[in-house]
Each structure stands twice: as C-alpha cells, then as structure tokens.
Amino acid sequence: MTALMSKPLSTFDRIADFALDRAPGDIPASTLEAAALMALDTLGIVAAASPMEAGVIARQTATLLYGSSDPAHSARMMFDGRRVSLAGAAYAAATQTDNLDGHDGYNPTKGHIGVVVIPTLATLAQHLPDLSGPEALAAITVGYEVAGRAGIALHATVSDYHTSGAWNCLGVVAMAARLRGQGRETMRQALGIAEYHGPRSQMMREIATPTMLHDGSGWGAMVGMSSMILAEHGFTGAPAITMEAPEATPYWEDLGQFWQMERQYVKPYPICRWAHAAIDGVRQVMLDHQLSHPDIAQVHVNSFHQAACLYQGLPPTTAIAQYSLPFPVAVHIAYGRIGAEHVAGTGLTDPLVAEIMQRITVSEDPRHSSRFPAGRWADVEITTTDGRILKSGDINARGGPEAPMPRAELVDKFMEFAAPSLGAERVAALRDATLALTDPQSRFSDVMKHLFDPIG
Q1: How confident is the model at residue 5 (pLDDT cuts 50, 70, 90)?
Q2: Whole-model pTM above 0.85?
C-alpha cells in the first residue's frame, strides 16, 4: 500500500502561514526585543523629522488629497493629530521619516524597512485598542521579515537598483492583513497589487540628484495600505512574482528560521549609510589620538563606489546633506557628533564645516567596492598639522550586527533625536512604554498615548 504524501507548501502558503498565524510565543524572545528596539529607534526619527520641511509638506498634502469620509478607514497622523485616510497617515509618517536619514536598514536589501513598518503599526493600531505589546511586536516582526526577503528577491531578479518603496510595500501588506484579520486569498491579491504598483524608482538617480524623494518609502507605505483596502473590496492582483515566481523561492526558504529582525543596522548619524564607514574611521582616529579639528591638516577617504558617488560639495539642502560624504565627515570633525540640527537650517551654512571640507578628499577603492552590499567599508588617512600620518585601517560602518550599537547608546540616540520635538516628559514616557512592549501584560495603547498630539 502506497503511503499518501502531503503536497509541499507553496512559497505563498509558507508566507501566509507566517504572516497571519505566527503567534508572539512562537517568535524568539530576542527577536521581539529587537523589534521593540527598532520601534524605539524609528519613533525617535519620526519625531525628529516632524518639524522638517518634507514632513510638513507630506502631512499637509495628506490632508488635501488623502482623506477619508469613513471613520473605519481613517486615522490620526503621527505627531500631528489631524485625521486622514489609513493610506494617507502611513504615507505622511513614512515620508517624513525617509527625509531624516537616521532610521534603521538591512544590508542585504540595500534599503530600509522600519520606515514603513512603524507608521503602518501606528496607523492600524488606532482601530485595535486591545492590541497587546507582544502582538504589536509580532506584527513588526512580520513586516520586517516579509519586506526584507521581498527586497532581496527583487534585487536578485531584476537589473536596476530600486528604492526601498519598491519592496517594503509588501511588508506593509503582510502587516495589514494580519492586523485587519484578513484571510489568505485577500492577502495574496493585496500582495500582487502592491508589487505591481510599488514605486520601482532608481536609487542611483536620487543619489546623483538628491531631493525629498529619498528612498521611495512614503509611496511604499501608501501603496501597501491602499493595496490591502483594494483587495478587501474585491480588487485582484495576484501573483506577486517576488514571492511566487520559481526563481524567488530560494529567498524565502529560511522564513521563520533565520530572523532578519535581529540583523538590522542602527544609524548613529542621520546620513546615508554609505558615508558611515568614513565618518566612523575619522571618529576612531580622532578618539585614539585625542585630536580636535585644529589638529587636522588633511583627510583622505577610500571607500566603495556608491559611497564615492555621494555629493562632494557644500550641500544647499537637507536632502543633499544626507546624501553627501565630505560634509558629514567635516561635521563630525568639528563637533564630534551629527544631529538633526546639522543637516538643516543654519547647519547647512556653518563656516567651520565649510572650511574643514576643504581638507577632505575621497576616492573609490575596488577592495571596498567588492564587499558591498554585505558591508559598508572605508579606510581613512589623516595628516596632522604636526606632520603625522594616521591611518584607521579598514572600517565597516558600526551599528549593524558586525559592530552593534550597545542598547544604552541606541536609547540615548532616541532621546537625543526625539526630545527637541517632544519635550523631556513626553519622550521619557514614550521610551518607557515602547521598551515595555515585551511584557506579556503590556498594551500598545500605552505607546499610542504619546504618538499623535502635535509637537511643539
């Protein structure tokens, strides 16, 4: 008698099982802890970005164009309070976050996930007053794990280097399907709609001419949320080829076994990650030899091709400042840190930074280029005013799993970035509520108390 063989699960079925059915208790505690920390880090950037021009424009545009007459399909915008559609609220928060380039990322995707995941959670949780802390962290984890693999699959199967919105929209769909209690077929159609309409914008165009477009994540959030609502009403769009095409299968085989959630990098600086190794190299040499800016005569940076393509001059706008290399290196030489104030307003015309930039040169090194995107490498040579030549050696940008940022430093970063917008009392309460989400008795509503009142 021949034994009956069960049919292997399709890739989509495995994704749906994971996204819709994986309970918080079936996710490692270390993964949920990482989700809480990435939530905190992203919230700090959302708050810090709120008064910046791009965020103001995005929120105003959402009120003009992306409203809703149905309370069940509307939500308040983060750190603003005005009510718009679900898609409009997610779009506005993701757009403003994308325009302060201090949020987390994932090396294999060459892009960012939390920038859409946290706005999606904050938007949808407004209709889930009893959402537990662990369930909120599980939803965050679903967003990261699905978006991360979609990004890897996309970059492995197409020729262009696309912005994050092209693939992080699929993480938004997975979260929305879970949090809105949708079934597998509705989720499948929504994934197909989102992938089809995802903003497949070319990243290197934005690097060459930096603007408020940044990494396409505002549109990624909007497309993902809109696709879910379309599918709920019967609109069709399957299949998503980054999930269902045979060539995509290998990129999903470790789902639920290898946790990308724990492999995200945290940015010490609100600058494109490609510049971080150069900044870290200068930082390390200055710390090791107790240098200050008057001690430095020249700085030469060797880095990978994409880093060498970053803007070389004094940036005229915030967008360009965040996609530059000599500028943030000069800021760190001058002040020993890079804050939101250095990439906006009078920080862009700082005469000390402009003078230090004249001492900095940049070259591409094939050795570093060969290690991208797995790492973001550079080495730095500093010539001092007394004639010494000091070398950093090869530096991989810190903040990722290969050189993790200590938990205390991550929390300090959140406080530094969020406090100017939220004030000391509110930012401390938001910190405590977010870090407490790992407690089985916690509620995400304790975080939401601090997310929607306007800044100021």
Answers
A1: low
A2: yes
